[in-house]
Amino acid sequence: MAIRILRPVLDGNRRILVVSDIFGNCDAFRRLLEKAEYTHEDYLILLGNITERGPESLKTLRLVMELSRSRRVLCITGDRDPVWREVFRADRNRELLQYVLRNPSLIRDMCAEIGVMLTPDTNMHPVKLALREAFAAEFEFLDSMSHVIETPNFVFAHAQILPGELEEMSPADVTRGDRFLDKGFSFERYVVVGHWPTLRYPEYKRNANPIILKNRKIISIDGGMTVLRDGQMNALIIPNAESEDFSFVSVDNYPKRIALNSQDAGLERHIIQAPDNRVKILKTSGDMCYCRQEKTEKNYWIPKAFLTQTADGCYTEDYTDYQLKVTFEDEVSVILQTSRGTLVKRNGVTGWYYGLLQ
After folding, report:
1. How many domains does the chain have?
2. Taking a C-beta distance cutoff of 8 angstroms, is the pair 170, 54 a contact?
3. Do residues 21 and 152 both lie within one domain?
4. Same structural domain for residues 64 and 169?
5. Cα-Cα-Cα-Cα dihedral of 43, 49, 50, 51, to 10°?
6. At residue 50, what are phi and psi to the nearest 5 degrees?
7. Packed helices 57-70 and 26-35: angle between N→C axes, nearest 10 degrees
8. Which residues, at least 6 apart from 82, have a Cβ–Cβ distance to it below 8 Å?
9. Residue 243 domain flag
10. Residue 325 lies in a domain
11. Which of 207, 232, 251 delimits the end of a domain?
């Protein structure tokens, strides 16, 4: 498949809202648009991964389709969205069935809507035929998505842009590719991407907010919702097609509480994340485990809820021991309450809070 590049002519006086990696989180997406005060006058650019992984892929897709009919909505495809293409293949029926049984997905939602109950013995061939007929409009919309959106001042892609001419890149070049910021590229126009959660750039603390590198003209906006426990959904706000006065809003799915005590930021911060997330449990105390990270041999108290035991060892989710700076009456998102403190997020940054909450 050749790369599809959309080159819209944008009205220079209108705001541009950019959202990535919605992953079927329809309610959060609605709340994000409301928080951004999204109107019919704005452009909305979606950087792929509208569906898959999250709880309401079909509902989210239909919301995007509805907005596209009456508003200025531009969509590009992500690395997860093309799962729908499996419905039009004559082979890989068993692989598709196993995927749908294991993962929340658009195809699972579609099967549920037309009353198809999937089991490990389901024959997917007739299911595919039924889906093609029932959801022709949805598949047509997904098939219409571009891989890149290019304007005079911006290039929008799901995962990355490589140096060189856009036409010489493949769909895989722009929809896949981890750790884009670490590749050292700089550009003459702003390149705006999602895909790799900003939380996984530890040099910026464990921070889910967009990363805006004006010196390199790169903006990374994926806040890691659904993929990571402390993730959020971000909307980058560009005042108009020629502005660099960027701002953003975000939402998450955590309860909000008010801090009743102040605490200073910790002097040190450590982050554990894949592939260096194998740990050894040294002792257990209630809901916490004292663990040694095997690569560094440093010891940490880690919540039991973060740990997974496999045949080849024990692994933790992405984790930080950072003590967050919190001021009296700050609002925080409560990620996890434990016997040794509360893991919270404030202004996009994850850390531990040891005071009381209202």
Report:
1. 2
2. no
3. yes
4. yes
5. 170
6. -70, -35
7. 40
8. none
9. yes
10. yes
11. 251
Same domain, 242 and 293: no
What distance in Å separates the CA atoms of residue 112 and residue 168, rounded to the nearest whole number?
Answer: 40
Q: How far does CA 334 lie from the centroid of its chain?
A: 19
Same domain, 217 and 69: yes
Query: Do residues 318 and 237 share a domain?
Result: no
Q: Is 3 part of a structural domain of the chain?
A: no
Residues 136 and 199 occupy one common structural domain: yes
Q: What range does the domain containing 290 cover?
A: 257-353
Q: What angle do CA 73, 77, 81 make, to 5 degrees?
A: 120
Six token digits for residue 201: 């750039």
pLDDT at 204: 64
* Rounded-to-integer distance, Cα 54 and Cα 26, Å: 9
CATH number of the domain encompassing residue 129: 3.60.21.10
The CA distance from 158 to 154, in Å, is 13
Confidence grade of residue 238 (pLDDT, cut at 50, 70, 90):
very high
DSSP letter for each residue of 67-94: HHHHSEEEEB--SSGGGGGGGG-SS-HH
Kindly state the DSSP code that residue 264 receives in the 8-state scheme: P
The count of other CB atoms within 10 Å of the CB of residue 162 is: 16
**116, 127, 117, 110: which is closest to 56 by C-alpha?**
110
Query: pLDDT digit string (tens) for 180-225?
Result: 999 999 999 999 999 999 999 977 689 999 999 999 999 999 999 9
Give dist(CA 79, CA 195) in Å, integer.
Answer: 8
The verdict on 206 and 82 lying in the same domain is: yes
Amino acid at 225: M
Question: How far is Cα 186 from Cα 28, in angstroms, rounded to an integer?
Answer: 32
Q: Is residue 4 part of a domain?
A: no
124-134 helix and 106-113 helix, angle to the nearest 10 degrees = 80
Residues 353 and 327: their CA atoms lie apart, in Å, by 10
- Count helices and strands (H / E) in the chain: 7, 22
For 72-123, the pLDDT digits (tens) are 999 999 999 999 999 999 999 999 999 999 999 999 999 999 999 999 999 9
184 and 81 in a common domain: yes
Domain boundary among 225, 251, 277: 251
How many other CB atoms sit within 10 Å of the CB of residue 24? 25
